[in-house]
């Protein structure tokens, strides 16, 4: 099949689009390329093809579409090709490439349309999120995972996010059931899970999984760090012996009949991207089994069910309303096993951190939650001040100790005698 445009022009468009075609800001200088390098990039090497390309370029030069810079004395030799700013629209139209401003306006139209939808559960949060997305798009900025130059994706994800948050899902709704319930094919939500959860995090201003909405993945999954043995029905044992790494268990949890560990305690950690990995890189005595818990998933519940009931459980989470909500959910999910909060005391900061609309929406229920009696004063302080304080786990800094309780500020930490050198500091 004959190519619609010359190969060198196709390559020029590719390089121009990569450098400028997706940008909103205007350029004052022509886009310029070395002629011989452009031909090489386009795969034009034979003398006949080079001569043809020169004739084609000469015609476009005469038509004022491009500018050819020729050798000073040997005028038949082309040295550089320039695309004037005034010709960029011509090149874009030639290859039917959408202008960045058109893409942005399409995305903004999708945002405006979505803002007209009445959200039945989180109307203020929905409106504020779309306002922030629209403001960012107007300024030419992306809002992860939404990009102003991908209007199709913006439309798809706004619709999916609304569908996920507009209803209260029954506990343990399977992900494929949820996908069908929203009018998609059964595997759509599975394929879109990562970007959907990124949209939820953007909307609620904190990491939010599908499990937090009551939607379960197709397999139980749990991220762990520590020593663990899963005992299988046929007598085999699957050993996880990576106390300085993080591992994922899925279908093995369903097959196991029990789990054993040399650890003396379990520590569940909300933040898996930083805090869990920092603690996992220490834990030198292997006495703590560390489990991810941004939400008490089916996988987490299953693993705790398999582990010995005498192992004490501690939960390390953020100290904002959503963090305490996770603590409540965890306690309910694995009752009657008790869960002690770990370093979940409210910390003030020099500049107050006001509550979000979402925080204010869930706080009243948390204040009367019977599963949060022991942290009631923390919640009352947050409510009275309208200030979340220094609530993120990361603001505690890196853990300093190589074994439990990992942080020197914890009451269980044994401080070294004055003048002595602590063996627990990483790097000593």
UniProtKB/TrEMBL annotation:
Residues 249-397 form the Wadjet protein JetD C-terminal domain. This is DUF2220 domain-containing protein. Gene3D superfamilies: 3.40.1360.10. SUPFAM superfamilies: DNA topoisomerase IV, alpha subunit (SSF56726). InterPro entries: JetD_C, Spo11/TopoVI_A_sf. The lineage of its organism: Bacteria, Pseudomonadati, Verrucomicrobiota, Verrucomicrobiia, Verrucomicrobiales. It comes from the Bacteria. It comes from Luteolibacter arcticus. Transmembrane segments: none annotated. It holds the Pfam family JetD_C.
